[in-house]
Amino acid sequence: MTLRSMTGFARVSGAQAEHSWLWEIKSVNGRGLEIRSRLPGGFDRVEESARKLIKSRLHRGTVNLHLQLSQGGVKSSYQVNQKFLGELLALAHSLVEAGNAEPARIDGMMALKGVIEQGDRELIDDTEQKALEDELAASLKEALGKLEAAREEEGRQLEPVLTSQIDEIASLIEKASSSAALRPENIRKRMKNQVDILLSNKTTFDEGRLEQELAILVTKADVSEELDRLSGHVATVRELLQSSGNDAMGRRLDFICQEFNREANTLCSKAGDKELTQIGLDLKVVVDRLREQVQNIE
Description:
single chain, 298 residues, alpha+beta, Ribosomal Protein S5, domain 2, 3 domains, two-stranded antiparallel sheet, 60% helix, 15% strand
């Protein structure tokens, strides 16, 4: 079984030197593949490679990608606040001249708060940037792997649901095929009644028109083609569920659901019997439930 859902979530954190990060990737249902990314400024190369990676591994779904990046334990630089130090020296000189203080010592002046300032280094060089981007890319691959695992797990949970619904459709087709309404003697009886009604409404009738009406009655009485096509669709779905490929499986199943619904509608419109009409309606209900589940498949 290779079913994969389009919904899933994964989160992976990492750290390198003074940087730490958190990748979050979430996917939900979508007609095609849509990627929405939110990364800090300055990481365009990471975003571009992330999009390429996602496109190479996912086929359908709306994917939301988010990167939280923080900088802790940043390397620091120190500098002397020349202006503040000059003001302190001027004040100390005036106090010495007034005889109110001893000449200031340089080590004492430098120890005063505010003379030496600490500044964070905001920029990293190209080598460090490349190393950080490589780590982010490796971390993203891990997150994407977890997302795929989540989608596959949900696909495994969908498989018995789909199989049960296909079995129910097959059972309804079998029930319709063995319906009393499709027995030859009952078909002949309904057609005779219809002909009697046509003849009783007119004292004279056109033989050509009667032949047309009979042809319509015969066509409406025969639903074998519809039942055969429904059975063929059931076989196709079973083959798909057991196939080894994932590509476009959701799209193919969605198309088959449309065909199921088309044949069920035709069956209801052609049914001249209450039992057969009810089977067609029950079939439409199961097909709708099947299609709801198929909307989740990649």
